[in-house]
Amino acid sequence: MSLNGYWILTSNHRLMHFHEEVSEVNLELRSHPVAITATRDGQGCLVLDGSGFIGAYGTARSLGDLSSLDLVAPPVDIAASPTGVGYWVIDSDGSVFSFGNAPFLEGIPQATENAVSAVKIEPTVEGDGY
Q1: What is the model's pTM?
Q2: Residue 119 counted as domain residue
Q3: Domain tally for the chain?
C-alpha cells in the first residue's frame, strides 16, 4: 500500500488533505462531523456525521449511510475495509453496520451489557474481523 498524503478533520469542521500541496475540502454534511477514514490510496476519505450521513471525498465512494434510519444510538466511528470497497460504522451501543464488501460480523453487544459506550471500530488486517 502506498500512502499518498493524509487527511485531517479539524475541530472547526475543516477537512484538510496533505499531499504535495495542502488543500482544504468543503464539507457537505448534514450534521457535525464525527469520524473519518482514509481510502487505501490515501487520495480519498469518508466522513461520518452525527446523523449517520457519510460524505465521500477525493477517490472515496459512498456506498450507503445511516441517515434514513431511526437510530437508537448515535454513530461514533467509521472504518474502511482493507479491500477498499466497503466500510463499517459503529454506534455508541456497539451496533455495527456494514456497507459494500465489508462483511457483517455481528455487533458488540457487550458494550451496552456492561454499561459502556463503543467509541471506535478497527478492522483486522485481513478484514475478517474487528
Answers
A1: 0.87
A2: no
A3: 1
